[in-house]
Amino acid sequence: MLVLPIIAGTAGVSAQELAGGCRLTIGAEVYNVPVGKPFAVQIGEQRVTMRIDPRSQTDFTIEGVSFSHPASLVAETPVDEGGVAIWAIQGPSSAIMLQRYDGELAPESLLKVLADNIAEQYGKQPIQRQAVQLRGADRTYPGQQLRVSTTAASGQGATAGQGVAEGTAVDLVQNVFTFASGDRVYALIVQDTRPAGGGETPEYQETLRLLGETLKTAPSTPKPAASATPQRSVPRRR
To answer: Where are the residues of the annotated region Disordered (predicted)?
Structure first.
């Protein structure tokens, strides 16, 4: 059997560009084909019907931690700040941040420190706090949810696909989960920025759904508890 390379990438392509179709390469042949509709191509002596759909989710894997997230969330350049490695993934309304801590930390202590630090950033603004859990693919992750009514920073999203003018009233929800994976301790922060008084954005709902279905971590190697002073605790607001 002859196996031909088939190339039909849609990652990073805008909706407007997808509406005009994409280029499909099969061996030496190049076809201009539609996206989301069936089409037929000739492969050798056989006529084959195909369909290309844009991918709706993106996979993330780093050091034994893996999950999928909506394709609307785009990864930023990882940074390392004082022994804390940070991976930020930003979308129009939601964001994910994974933080890896060097040194000997207890996830329970880290959770309290992070949640307290977030609360302190808003000063005297009323903050609602409650315990939450994220049920991943193979274990449950305890966490804290913090909810505050505030004003949007410049360019910050609050509805899927839309930016919000600076100073617009929004409700900011941040879920903080901490866990050990291998011999490291991590914090996973999931954020949603929604119109004041509004419900969960569709992007946030899809983010939580995918995390629940796909989040996997390595078995933990116990370490003694130690205090932590995180360098950064919230996704950057645009």
So the answer is: 214-238
